[in-house]
Design goal:
Number of domains: 2
Strand order of the largest sheet: 3-4-5-2-6
Strand content: 5-15%
Distance between the termini: 25 Å
Protein name: Cell division protein ZapE
Keywords: ATP-binding, Cell cycle, Cell division, Nucleotide-binding
Number of strands: 9
Order of helices and strands: EHHHEHEHHEHEHHEHEHHEHEHH
GO cellular component, one term: cytoplasm
Largest sheet: 5 strands, parallel
Helix content: 40-55%
CATH superfamily of the largest domain: P-loop containing nucleotide triphosphate hydrolases
GO molecular function: ATP binding; ATP hydrolysis activity
Pfam families: AFG1_ATPase
Shape: globular
Oligomer: single chain
Number of helices: 15
CATH class of the largest domain: Alpha Beta
Length: 345
């Protein structure tokens, strides 16, 4: 028998130390390395990116000394403050970023763009700077440009960390359909972060989304009866969070996104009854964060109701936050496939 819980009844309490301790690669990327990355032979930019990151890891471990020691240190060619990986979904950017994190000595931090903005919201900007300024490396996955306020906030954070001698690494989340349009993500990144642009090496990674290379389309939603049967037949001895979708969506409003890692702690699988299209932007954006955390922890999903490609409205999928929604649909689809077929996403 599975152990049934409800996310809609969870209200995690998280300390500052707990928040900071969560800034490491998720279990999905807990053991990755440069050696475990498999470049596509038809995409030479992938091999180029691996070499660039290996070299950057050496720079991080031999960063310039500060203070009086720097005056007497041997002169070296000044290195860039950071490295930025630009590319579409599923080309292995997060794998490479996590490999960089694993390759260097600490203290170091790894999190998504949204997790860092949520950290600032939970701690304050100054306390976040103080907490991260002693780190050797700060990795920011899926740098987002769709919210000007958050972009300015992260620009300022990265500038202050770079001034403190922290090495930075970031990835983009370019839309697959925009890969041929002048490499827009890197251009936007450099425009929005003008102060930092000349301090970053921009590395382009081309390729198709590995999550859907040769894989079947996303499975159809289950009926509610099939969903209940699968919960008890497929997840024996596991902890399954089974929720009415509308209850879960409503409950998320009262849980700060910075706590979503702890929110799903101990959950082996989720079962959502009667998935419906989300029509409110603020609700949809919170759900995107939950989708990211579920994907981070490789939590399989089974669901009834609407298919995940109908989770967000057409207006959302073509609007200012479309990058977030496309990523969420891609990830939820992968987890739904795993939930029904046992394939790893």
């Amino acid at each position: 028998m599975p152990q049934i819980e409800q996310l809609s009844r969870r209200t995690p309490k998280v300390s500052v130390d707990d928040l900071l301790e969560g800034f490491h690669p998720s279990p999905r990327f807990g053991d990755v390395s440069f050696d475990s990355y498999r470049p596509d032979p038809s995409q030479p930019s992938q091999s180029i990116a691996v070499k660039a990151l290996r070299d950057f890891a050496v720079e991080v471990d031999h960063r310039e000394p500060k203070g009086l020691k720097k005056l007497f240190a041997a002169k070296r060619q000044p290195s860039k403050a950071g490295i930025y990986l630009d590319g579409g979904f599923g080309v292995g950017k997060t794998h490479l970023l996590a490999s960089l994190w694993h390759a260097v000595e600490g203290p170091k931090a790894f999190g998504t763009f949204v997790e860092y903005t949520n950290l600032v919201g939970a701690l304050s900007f100054r306390k976040t700077v103080d907490a991260l300024s002693s780190y050797r490396l700060v990795c920011i996955d899926e740098f987002e440009l769709d919210d000007p306020g958050d972009t300015v906030l992260m620009s300022r954070l990265m500038r202050e960390l770079a001034d403190a001698g922290v090495k930075l690494a970031a990835t983009s989340n370019t839309l697959p359909g925009s890969l041929g349009e002048g490499r827009f993500a890197a251009v936007d990144f450099q425009r929005e972060i003008q102060v930092l642009s000349d301090q970053f090496n921009v590395i382009r990674i081309d390729g198709e989304d590995y999550r859907h290379r040769g894989l079947p389309a996303a499975p159809d939603p289950l009926t509610d009866l099939e969903l209940k049967r699968r919960v008890y037949s497929d997840f024996k001895g596991q902890v399954v969070a089974a929720d009415e979708f509308s209850d879960l969506v409503s409950h998320l409003e009262g849980v700060h996104p910075s706590r979503y890692r702890q929110f799903i702690d101990g959950i082996d699988a989720v079962a959502w009854h009667n998935v419906a299209t989300i029509t409110e932007q603020s609700v949809a954006l919170r759900f995107v964060v939950l989708a990211d955390r579920l994907y981070d922890k490789d939590v399989p999903i089974i669901a009834s109701g609407r298919p995940f490609d109908e989770l967000f409205t057409p207006e959302m999928m073509s609007g200012g936050y479309m990058k977030k929604y496309y990523r969420a649909v891609s990830r939820l689809t992968a987890l739904a496939r795993e939930g029904l077929t046992g394939e790893e996403s």
